[in-house]
Design brief:
Radius of gyration: 67 Å
Largest sheet: 2 strands, antiparallel
Shape: elongated
Strand order of the largest sheet: 1-2
Number of strands: 2
Helix content: over 70%
Distance between the termini: 175 Å
Number of helices: 5
Length: 297
């Protein structure tokens, strides 16, 4: 339950008060850390100043010594002496750069310390307010009350994170459901296309089957006609065979053996053809013989 206290021409909610108190504690901790670091940096800077003065003194002595040596060994200068002098000069420059960096860092720490002090001053009235609230609660000091509120905020943050996770899971499930729906729609469309294609193929097959059925009917009708004609031919052959077989003694032939019947009919026709030819030859001879006596007379 939220409580508000009036004062100073305005009101403050429990949440604002809690946030301000936590911010105050954070700023106080930051200010304390800055004070410790500033003290350490200041000690180190003092040490560097001392070392700088010593190095500067050593550098001056080295320069004087180098000048004396250069004067003494002007014609016998070696590379080793020059390298040593250059090395000492580089070390001095590095030290100077480190001192400059530490000075800048020290200035930055001072600036941050001042900002922290301003922030602490800004939130100091919250501390006074916290002390007044402390008297109305069961807590013994401000730290316990602040810790209690921090626990509440921590629980609230956990619940908020849990709510975000649940919301994210819901969004993920929505995306998964939409993806499955899209896949289902795509599959449904593909199945419809395949069904349409199969229906087209079925209609084509039915049309072809109808054509082949008509062709089969035509073949059956033709076959029936041919069978009828064949029966008629067999019957006519049988009748002709019976007519020809009455005059001559021949081998018995089955009524259904049309081929043999035809062979016998063929033999009968050939025999009678020969007989007719012989008869015609005789007639021609007799006519010729009858014509010769007439011519002689």
């Amino acid at each position: 339950m939220s409580k508000t206290r009036s004062g100073g021409g305005g009101s403050m909610s429990a949440r604002d008060f809690l946030s301000a108190q936590i911010a105050l504690k954070q700023k106080e901790r930051e200010a304390e850390q800055l004070r410790k670091r500033y003290k350490e940096q200041k000690q180190f800077l003092d040490y560097l100043h001392q070392r700088t003065e010593e190095l500067q003194k050593s550098t001056e002595e080295a320069r004087e010594q180098r000048f004396k040596l250069e004067m003494f060994f002007r014609d016998e200068e070696t590379d080793a002496d020059m390298e040593m002098a250059q090395k000492e000069m580089k070390e001095a420059m590095v030290k100077e750069a480190e001192i400059q960096r530490l000075k800048e860092e020290c200035a930055e720490l001072k600036k941050r310390k001042q900002e922290a002090q301003l922030q602490t001053l800004k939130y100091s009235h919250y501390k006074k307010f916290m002390l007044r609230v402390l008297k109305l609660t069961k807590f013994d000091n401000v730290d316990l009350l602040t810790g209690y509120f921090e626990n509440l905020l921590h629980i609230r943050d956990q619940l908020y994170q849990r709510e975000n996770q649940v919301q994210e899971q819901k969004e993920q499930q929505k995306r998964t459901l939409q993806s499955l729906k899209d896949q289902h729609d795509l599959l449904w469309l593909q199945m419809n296309n395949q069904l349409s294609q199969r229906q087209t193929e079925l209609e084509k097959a039915r049309s072809e089957a109808l054509i082949w059925e008509q062709e089969w009917n035509r073949i059956q009708e033709t076959a029936a006609k041919k069978m009828l004609e064949l029966g008629q031919i067999k019957l006519a052959t049988l009748n002709l065979h019976e007519l020809t077989s009455g005059e001559l003694e021949r081998e018995e032939v089955d009524d259904n053996d049309t081929e043999k019947q035809l062979e016998q009919i063929k033999v009968f026709m050939l025999d009678h053809t020969d007989i007719v030819k012989q008869y015609q030859t005789c007639l021609q001879r007799e006519a010729k013989e009858n014509q010769e006596p007439t011519q002689n007379i």
